[in-house]
Amino acid sequence: MNKPSVPEVAGYLAGMASIGASLTLTDVGALVGIAIAVLGFLANMFFTYRRDRREQRESDARVARMKKRS
């Protein structure tokens, strides 16, 4: 793979700068809100998965104790 030349890098940087400059504060707020919503969803999925695993272990232990009594 060839190393990018200085004009290519400058072109990409200028393109990113023009996109950033075209965003209004409303657009930035919407993007931040979407990012926070996605992060909240992922955190909720992670902690729900952990809770489900913990409850399954508790249920398995309770069933095992009931079988020992019988």
| Number of E strands | 0
β content, as a range?
under 5%
Series of H and E elements:
HH
Question: How far apart are the termini?
Answer: 70 Å
Question: What Rg, in angstroms, do the CA atoms define?
Answer: 26 Å
Helix count equals: 2
Largest sheet: none
Shape, principal axes of CA atoms: elongated
* Estimated helix fraction: over 70%
Q: Low-confidence parts lasting 5 or more residues at pLDDT below 50?
A: none
pLDDT average, as an integer? Answer: 93
What structural class should be given to the helix and strand makeup?
mainly alpha
List key phrases describing it:
70 residues; mainly alpha; 0% strand; 2 helices; elongated
Write a concise synopsis of the structure shown.
This protein is mostly helical and 70 residues long.
Can you describe this structure?
The radius of gyration is 26 Å and the shape is elongated. The relative contact order is 0.05. It has 70 residues and is an all-alpha fold. Helix content is 89%, strand content 0%. The chain has a domain of 46 residues. It has two helices and no strands.
